Q: What sequence folds into this?
């Protein structure tokens, strides 16, 4: 299975047509796939809160948006999540590379990994953790859930899910 | 002129357009001067007016005007390259440059000192940047709307605020009303 293709197939099947990204090495393949798809407008952002602003606008313009980002950026997004996405009740699937988890080669990444789930829980953000490739089977349901409840929802994807980091 | 005087003057031009309005006094002023379903009032999230407006412009065809502030653009400077590189000809970024953080008591911003936001926008790749003095804004804004060409307007004006109430409308109501106006 090509995991990047499978993920983007699910986005398209759920009518997601506006995707903003800030890269992570683990996300390189899925970002390429997003860029390549005709039905998706890909707009790279310079910072994740900026990307969430773009997504809020796109949602109000009638499109289903999504952000693809790294977990180290979670801190810079809290004000936006609280005062824009959650306050105005907007849906936002967040596909997040969960750096600093099992099979992570870069020690510094662990420093944000240890905070990631606690911070998301503090924000009452429904959070799913993909560790095995088969966990991707849940993505379609998570996307439907996100647009059903109009909330930001986090999908954490660790190095093991992406087939390892050091050895990929 | 101060920001509230400018908004009063351009309100008839804004009325028929989709407007995303910056946090704090700008939204309170626009709400008081001419509340419209086509206005999206930001109640928080300083810095993202330009981003919300761009996302909205890219997602549908109607003209979108983001009313922003110099301080807010400075806090989200990354927005200017994103705007420059994702041209939406139905998008106008109107920066009310009063050289200060007006809503918090007019503390000076760097835009009121050495930094010229119009030069920053151009350096970021924005192709149609217009600097205008407060009293001349109306015709410039109307022309930008009529031209349907993505435009960044930097409107220089004085610092200063008027006393007025906060917006008590529920954010979900603001958003719902706005989305209905977008679809209308
Ligand atoms: C993250 C964050 N920092 C600070 C503030 C406080 N604050 C609200 S409005 C504002 C000033 C915005 O200045 P500007 O964009 O120039 O708009 P003006 O009021 O001058 O029109 C500030 C600092 C805030 N709301 N959010
Ligand atoms: Mg200002």
A:
């Amino acid at each position: 299975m090509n995991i990047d293709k499978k993920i983007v197939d699910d986005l398209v099947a759920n009518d997601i047509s506006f995707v903003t990204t800030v890269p992570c090495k683990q996300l390189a393949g899925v970002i390429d796939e997003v860029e390549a798809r005709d039905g998706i407008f890909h707009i790279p952002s310079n910072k994740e809160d900026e990307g969430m602003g773009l997504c809020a606008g796109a949602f109000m313009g009638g499109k289903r948006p999504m952000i693809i980002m790294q977990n180290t950026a979670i801190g810079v997004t809290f004000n936006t999540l609280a005062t824009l996405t959650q306050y105005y009740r907007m849906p936002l699937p967040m596909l997040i590379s969960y750096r600093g988890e099992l099979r992570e080669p870069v020690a510094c990444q662990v420093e944000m990994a240890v905070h990631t789930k606690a911070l998301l829980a503090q924000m009452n953000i429904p959070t799913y953790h993909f560790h095995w490739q088969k966990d991707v089977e849940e993505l379609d349901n998570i996307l439907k859930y996100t647009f059903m409840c109009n909330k930001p929802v986090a999908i954490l994807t660790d190095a093991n899910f992406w087939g390892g980091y050091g050895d990929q | 002129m101060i920001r509230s005087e400018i908004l009063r003057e351009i309100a008839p031009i804004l009325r028929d357009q989709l407007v995303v309005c910056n946090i704090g006094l700008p939204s309170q002023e626009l709400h008081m001067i001419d509340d419209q379903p086509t206005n999206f009032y930001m109640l928080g999230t300083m810095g993202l007016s330009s981003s919300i407006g761009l996302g909205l412009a890219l997602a549908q065809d109607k003209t979108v005007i983001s009313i922003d502030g110099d301080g807010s653009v400075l806090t989200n400077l990354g927005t200017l390259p994103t705007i420059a590189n994702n041209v939406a000809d139905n998008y106008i970024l109107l920066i009310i440059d009063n050289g200060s953080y007006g809503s918090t008591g007019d503390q000076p911003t760097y835009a009121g000192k050495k930094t010229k936001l119009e030069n920053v926008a151009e350096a970021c790749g924005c192709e149609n940047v217009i600097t205008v003095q407060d009293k001349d804004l109306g015709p410039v804004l109307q022309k930008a709307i009529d031209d349907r060409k993505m435009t960044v307007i930097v409107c220089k004006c004085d610092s200063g605020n008027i006393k007025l109430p906060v917006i008590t409308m529920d954010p979900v109501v603001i958003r719902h009303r706005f989305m209905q106006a977008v679809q209308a």
